[in-house]
Amino acid sequence: MKVALIQLAYDDSETVEERTTRVVDLVRQQRGHDLVVLPELWPMGGFDYRAWSDKAQTTSGSVVQALGAAARDAGVLLHGGSIVERPGGAPGPEGKDLWNTSVVLDSSGELVATYRKIHRFGFAGGEPALMEAGADLVSIELPDGSMAGLSTCYDLRFPELYRAQIDQGATVFVIPAAWPMARVDHWRLLLRARAVEDQAVVIACNTAGTHARAEMGGHSAVIGPGGEVLAEAGEGEEVLSVDLPTDLVQAAREGFPVLADRRL
What we know:
This protein is α/β, with parallel strands linked by helices. It has helices at 16-28, 49-55, 62-74, 127-130, 159-167, 184-198, 248-255, and strands spanning 2-7, 9-10, 35-37, 77-85, 99-105, 111-116, 139-141, 147-150, 172-176, 201-205, 208-211, 214-215, 221-223, 229-232, 238-243. It holds the Pfam family CN_hydrolase.
């Protein structure tokens, strides 16, 4: 399976419309890949909290429609990163009406999965103050037939989420992020940890650039089930292209069957 991670760099100068146009052009350039992944909250800005409410959209809004058209044109399964979602209707359990929602579109341009971020970053500010928490585990079937569990950025710090996903059959984790440079060492370490402890492939697409005064960490990566770094981006805008062997996880789990020894 051929995977492309679009590590997008942006600043505060672009509008949502300008950035969307730029991103869908990049997606269309990935024809020949099976899976394309974008970063978290790229249309609205991962740390641009003050603008989230004004920039929020539904999963049938202009950003997702544009992503669907690009996925169809490129003939790829597209993990479109995430958007600030305001679905309309009743607010969530905490009285908020925004979610950090990942979207996945198939090669016909249809929206086939959404995942609302479960763990909100901000320590009572930021996401917890503005957004509802997701509650559902979500997995998708990848073009090679493997199952991929979906999570987003800060979720990476909570290993129980990934254990639950492998119990549902996941052999791959797809993780869009807006992870800052200040903690990029944690990002690189935790990606490998999640891969090793779950004997899974980790496909993680981070953000580059600086926006809302936050320098982003880059270093998008694909990690094998033994913790091996199969590919890693630098700190700027970059498209990372990786060919993944189909039997990578099966070979790792059969060769070192540690998961069979779980007790708790």
